[in-house]
From TrEMBL:
Gene3D superfamilies: NAD(P)-binding Rossmann-like Domain. Its main location: membrane. It is found in: Membrane. The keyword Membrane applies. PANTHER family: COLANIC BIOSYNTHESIS UDP-GLUCOSE LIPID CARRIER TRANSFERASE, UNDECAPRENYL-PHOSPHATE N-ACETYLGALACTOSAMINYL 1-PHOSPHATE TRANSFERASE-RELATED. Residues 258-442 form the Bacterial sugar transferase domain. It is a multi-pass membrane protein. It comes from Flavobacterium sediminilitoris. Keywords: Membrane, Transferase, Transmembrane, Transmembrane helix. Its EC number is 2.7.8.31. Belongs to the bacterial sugar transferase family. This is Undecaprenyl-phosphate glucose phosphotransferase.
Length: 449
């Protein structure tokens, strides 16, 4: 008898719900014996499920990335911790908050281990036994179709078994009736259609067939098609409305998480580093050249609003500071300025901007106002960067596009990485960018001048 082909998720998800709820309740007597009450258990269960629904904690699919699962775990942990302390603060005079932190941390670690174990065991099961797979066909042709065929063949652990590719390139080798018969006879689970290969009428035929036969249909957009974007579908009444892009930081929960991270990180840098480094640098900057310790410059931030961005002054006073970017071997840069620019120390005062809320630790780097106006006119999609707060560092900077914009390729790639970041933000991505930024500062960046 052949193994079942991918209907286990209907059992796995409820199983994980039950296991997770049991874990958070069974650990209470060990870590929080003084508040081990029925009301507290009801509170834990209810808010665990509410938070899980809000952050899509159990929405993990065979194609979900590891970093996305980690992101869900971190969100669940932070929000569960906040609500746990809120409960204690309202109902109890709890003198040992470290117990609550330990309890929730241990709970999340155990739950995370179970979650990852199930995820990886299913991958191993698909490879070793051929179970938990989905039978798929592809209709159409083109570059994207070839990429998808290659993906299915090389990633067996995802659990997709490609049964056939209906390529209509040569005057439609098979009529739709044959295609539909094959799908029914072979018990195909999912149909992938290349939009670039089919007319609207043909797409409608396939959609009608899938709707009438309970088959899942997915579309493979052409690289030039608007559907290749990160779209989001809403309904106004019964009218479907498609938004051009989905920005995770538009969600209130994500905004709160990112703001908490920004505040905590900026306080850590301001108190732990700037508190003693700032007086030392002030003396060195003043000794070498006249002028203020800090350099402030108007830049464009969230929603294109202007704000003053702060840096340690690294150049001698000059009338072109707000007009021209620093270039390699720029005579305006002082000796101490060259050092702090090379090590990115000159950017540290921007943590005050982060604390005040007009910047974030990670985000698109803000440009001086004159350059923003120039790029807005000449670079496609440049203004999209202003949908979120600018950052001290960003995805573009960790991929070799920091510092001076030497040519059109530099600014186009910077915009490309910035748009990818705002459409795919996660707290883990922020942490990864911060770590890479620190490593680049230690190693030295060839464009840090």
């Amino acid at each position: 008898m052949s193994p079942k082909t991918g209907r286990y998720s209907g059992y796995i998800r409820p199983f994980l719900y039950v296991i997770d709820v049991l874990i958070i309740n069974l650990l209470v007597p060990f870590f929080l014996p003084s508040i081990n009450s029925t009301n507290f258990h009801l509170f834990l269960t209810l808010f665990w499920l509410i938070i899980a629904w809000n952050v899509a904690f159990y929405e993990v699919f065979r194609f979900t990335k590891i970093i996305q699962i980690l992101g869900k775990i971190i969100k669940q942990y932070i929000l569960f911790l906040i609500f746990g302390f809120a409960y204690l603060g309202y109902f109890y005079k709890f003198s040992r908050p470290s117990q609550m932190v330990l309890y929730i941390t241990i709970s999340i670690v155990i739950i995370a281990l179970i979650k990852f174990s199930v995820f990886f065991l299913l991958k191993k099961f698909r490879v070793a036994f051929g179970g938990n797979f989905r039978r798929v066909v592809i209709i159409g042709n083109g570059k994207r179709v070839n990429q998808l065929i290659d993906f299915f063949n090389k990633n067996i652990d995802y659990g997709y078994k490609l049964e056939f590719v209906f390529d209509f390139k040569n005057q439609k080798q098979r009529e739709f009736k044959e295609v539909f018969n094959f799908i029914l006879e072979e018990k195909i689970d999912e149909i992938y259609c290349s939009l670039s290969s089919l007319s609207n009428n043909e797409i409608n035929q396939i959609v009608d067939f899938c709707d009438n036969n309970l088959k899942k249909i997915k579309f493979l957009p052409d690289s030039k098609d608007i559907l290749s974007r990160n779209l989001i579908l809403d309904y106004y009444g019964y009218i479907p409305i498609i938004s051009l892009r989905n920005i995770p930081l538009d969600q209130p929960t994500n905004k709160i998480i990112k703001r908490i991270f920004d505040i905590l990180f900026s306080i850590f840098i301001i108190l732990g580093l700037l508190s003693w480094l700032m007086p030392l640098l002030a003396v060195l900057i003043k000794i070498e050249s006249k002028g203020p310790v800090f350099f402030k410059q108007k830049r464009n931030g969230l929603n294109y609003e202007e704000f003053y961005c702060y840096k340690f002054r690294s150049m001698r006073l000059n009338p072109l500071a707000d007009l021209e970017q620093v270039q390699k071997n720029d005579p305006r840069v002082t000796k101490i300025g060259a050092f702090i620019r090379r090590t990115s120390i000159d950017e540290l005062p921007q943590f005050f901007n982060v604390f005040l809320g007009n910047m974030s630790v990670v985000g698109p780097r803000p440009h001086m106002v004159s350059h923003t106006e120039m790029y807005a006119k000449s670079v496609d999609k440049f203004m999209v960067r202003h949908f979120i707060k600018p950052g001290i560092t960003g995805l573009a900077q960790t991929n070799g596009f920091r510092g001076e914009v030497e040519n059109d390729r530099d600014i186009r790639n910077r915009v490309k990485y910035d748009i990818f970041y705002l459409e795919n933000w996660s707290l883990l991505l922020d942490l990864k960018i911060v770590i890479l930024t620190v490593l680049n500062a230690i190693r030295g960046d060839k464009k840090a001048y």
